[in-house]
Amino acid sequence: MTAKQRAALRAMANTIKPVLQIGKDGISDHLIKQAWDALEARELIKVTLLKTAPYTAREACDLLCEKVHADPVQVIGQRFVIYRKARKDSKIDLDQLG
Predict the structure, then answer these.
(1) What is the pLDDT of residues 25-60, one digit of tens each?
(2) Is 14 inside a domain boundary?
(3) Number of folded domains in the chain?
(4) Which of 31, 55, 91, 95 could crosslink 60 through cysteines, CB 3.0-4.6 Å?
(5) Residue 72 covered by a domain
(6) Could you tell me the end-to-end alpha-carbon distance of the chain, in angstroms, rounded to an integer?
(7) Which positions ≥6 away from 37 have C-beta within 8 Å?
(8) CA 81 to CA 86: how far, in whole Å?
(9) What is this structure's pTM?
(10) Which residues contact 67 (CB under 8 A, 6 or more apart)?
(11) How is the chain classified by DSSP, letter by letter?
């Protein structure tokens, strides 16, 4: 992913609401399944880290991206945004973004 593509995805992420929360249970199999399904449906998702989470936002972002084969877009405070192209019916064309 190029810097221009990442910048375009960051701009798109400004208007979306967080769809997942990581709490004291951390990144469980259930959370991974939810993230996978959300990425398949939306491609770009925002995740919030609760204060009780056992990770920093950067650690959680890296770990979740590894588990769901996604790319990190940005990490700010207790939130992060990740992107993965949908297997079917892709809505976001990275080639047109940058």
Answers:
(1) 999 999 999 999 999 999 999 999 999 999 999 999
(2) yes
(3) 1
(4) 55
(5) yes
(6) 9
(7) none
(8) 16
(9) 0.90
(10) 27, 32, 35
(11) --HHHHHHHHHHHTTPPP-EEE-TT-S-HHHHHHHHHHHHHHSEEEEEE-TT-SS-HHHHHHHHHHHHT-EEEEEETTEEEEE---SSS----HHHH-
Which residue matches tokens 């609401």?
17
Q: Locate tokens 């945004």: which residue? A: 81
Tokens of 11: 């701009």
By residue range, what is the domain housing residue 24?
3-84
The type of residue at 37 is: D
Q: Is residue 19 part of a domain?
A: yes
Residue 31 is encoded by which pair of tokens?
Answer: 């959370």
Question: From the CB of residue 95, how many other CB atoms can be counted at a distance below 10 Å?
Answer: 6
Q: Are strands 44-49 and 20-22 parallel, antiparallel or unpaired?
A: parallel
